[in-house]
Amino acid sequence: MHASISEMKNQICWASKEIYQRGLFNIGEGNISLRVNNRDEMIITPSGNNYLNPLPENLVHVTFEGKIITEGQKPSTEYYLHRFFYEQRTRVNCIIHTHSTYASILAVQHRSLPIIFEEMLVFLGGGVSCSEYAATGTEELGVNALEAMGSQNAVILANHGLLIVGRNIEHCVFGSQLVEKMAKIYVKSVAMGKINEIPKGNVSRLLERFNQEFSTS
Questions:
Q1: Helix 139-149 to helix 79-88 angle, to the nearest 10 degrees?
Q2: Which of 11, 49, 72, 136 could staple 45 via S-S, CB 3.0–4.6 A?
Q3: Which tens digit of pLDDT belongs to each residue from 160-196?
Q4: What is the rounded CA–CA span in Å between residue 15 and residue 63?
Q5: CB-based contacts of 12: which residues, under 8 Å, 6+ apart?
Q6: pLDDT tens, 68-109?
Q7: Given phi > 0 = left and psi -120 to 50 = alpha, else beta, which region is 28?
Q8: pLDDT tens digits, residue range 3-57?
Q9: Distance separating alpha carbons of residues 114 and 196, to the nearest angstrom
């Protein structure tokens, strides 16, 4: 059973507050979208969104071709990035882009996040790679991000932040929180010395659940 447009807008408002309260982005940065019921349409946060007090009427319902169904609002400048992922990965139903602090530290260092906790395998499908740099709003940004993401559900965007995709909005909210937690642990651990990753022999067992429940590739 498909959710109504109203229900989807309320879901994005919930996600906006949840992520903002956890400090994963500030007012006016980042973006969230939902695919509209297997159609070539999405609902996306507007440019300069207020995540502290998001309003359903401010969210933008737009087709993949760029036709705005909801009048009076300008979609996020990352609309093209969202559209690219929806077109390339049909199992993606939600996308969240954040500028969270520790993921952004890795982004400016062009550094990937290795598999340091088992949760990364179960919910993300592995480590989080960093893409090659591309300017905001360009087709190259989407191409580079998709290539770096591989079969996982997350990618660090060079000099830009984090992108999470998921089968639903709950997966994306949790994934964005998980990556920031893992990035914080990793950055602080690097400062202390050696990093010990999850042994490769344990990977396949944990990926079985990812493939069944969370994979979008």
A1: 50
A2: 49
A3: 999 999 999 999 999 999 999 999 999 999 999 888 8
A4: 21
A5: 32, 33, 34, 43, 45, 54, 56, 59, 169
A6: 998 778 888 899 999 999 999 999 999 999 999 999 999 999
A7: left
A8: 899 999 999 999 999 999 999 988 788 999 999 998 999 999 998 888 888 999 9
A9: 9
For domain 5-213, give its CATH number from 3.40.225.10, 3.30.70.100, 3.30.430.20, 3.40.309.10. 3.40.225.10
C-alpha distances (whole Å) from 70 to each of 28, 64, 76, 94, 188 are: 20, 14, 13, 19, 44
Kindly state the tokens that stand for 80.
């093209």
CA 94 remoteness from chain centre: 8
Give φ, ψ of 169 to 5 degrees: -70, -30
What pTM was estimated for this model as a whole? Answer: 0.96
Task: Tell me the domain boundaries of the chain.
Answer: 5-213
Q: What is the pLDDT of residue 1?
A: 64
Q: Which residues contact 110 (CB under 8 A, 6 or more apart)?
A: 130, 133, 158, 159
- Give the number of residues written for the chain: 217
Contacts of the segment 102-106: beta carbons below 8 A, 24+ positions apart: 102/180, 102/183, 102/184, 102/186, 102/187, 103/128, 103/156, 103/161, 103/162, 103/179, 103/180, 103/183, 104/160, 104/161, 104/162, 105/183, 105/187, 106/130, 106/156, 106/183, 106/186, 106/187
Average pLDDT over residues 50-69: 92
Paired sense of beta strands 94-98 and 31-35, if any? antiparallel
